[in-house]
Amino acid sequence: MLLGTYQHALDAKNRIIIPSKLMDELSGKLYIYPAANKTCIKLYDEEHWNRYAEIIANLPQEIRYGVQNRIFPNSQQVAPDAQNRVPIPAVMLEKVGIGGKNVITVGMGDYCEIWDPEKYEAAQSAPVSPEIEKVIASMGF
Hints:
- The protein is of the alpha+beta class.
- It is built from six helices and eight strands, in the order E-E-H-E-E-H-H-E-E-H-E-E-H-H.
- Strand 7 and strand 8 form a beta hairpin.
- It is globular and about 40 Å long.
- The model has no long low-confidence stretch (mean pLDDT 95).
């Protein structure tokens, strides 16, 4: 399970180091996609990416192309190097508003998110809705 929050810097080639605690949980090829709400970049391993690809393939034909056209052209397959560095295309960083050299990587269970630190802090400091608080409390957290 992908858990935790990690802060690091992009290097001169727009690569980030994926922490070893996260890399140990990721398997196969890695895929990145700018979130639809343009808040962050999502990082999926092959198993989870293929689940989404299967969902898309099974959509009704009249909407399948529209969904494919929004997701697949904006996605990239990336390969970590020996130091667990993953390249992030500049255009993808721009799409989600990562303008500085610092980023935050967040484990989200079955995928990771890569955020601009200021945007992440703003999102985390936003009040949690009563519905979400109720669900979290009912789960015993």
